[in-house]
Amino acid sequence: MPSPSPRRRWRRDDENLGELNVVPYLDIVTNLVMFMLQVVTVAMTLGEVRVEAPTVGTGPTPEIPPITVVVGHGGYTVAGEHAVLLQPPGGSTVPRVEGALDGAALRATLQKARALTPTSRVVLVPEDNIPVSELVTTMDDVRGVFPDIAFGGI
Fold it and tell me: Contact 150/135 with Cβ under 8 angstroms?
């Protein structure tokens, strides 16, 4: 018997292969789509930015500079727009008491500074090698007077 022609051999091979099963691929694509939707949803909630639109008819409002609180080894130094506020000569605004930071005196000083300047923001500037626990305590003390806190550098 003569061997089948190459054309027939290919036709027979195609008939044996059958159809491509796409169900596993659709499962993978569905899972990827669900995963991407979840990632985008979480990323959107983490990336929310507080934005306030200006009112119609008003010009730009001048930005009020924040109060700066320097957390140093000698105590706190509270500074305003152009000068150090309420500082005794030759020392920190709120010196350390027996080696510890005085949170009550800082709050009292910030209350006085709030009366002098119309700002609602405070920038905390730590000096080198200040323990994190002192920064957290300072943030708690400042937040009692000024709710808007940011970190800055020297």
Answer: no
In the chain, which ranges are continuous DSSP H helix?
A: 6-17, 23-46, 103-116, 132-143
The Cα-based distances of 68 to 17, 46, 112, 136 in angstroms read 76, 28, 14, 16
* Triad 134, 140, 145: Cα angle to 5°: 130
* Cα separation, 26 vs 11, whole angstroms: 29
Write out the two tokens for 138. 């300072």
Q: Decide if pLDDT at 151 tops 60.
A: yes
Cα 135 from Cα 126, distance rounded (Å): 8
**Residue 85: per-residue pLDDT:** 57
State pLDDT tens for residues 78-119: 877 655 655 555 556 777 888 888 888 888 888 887 777 777
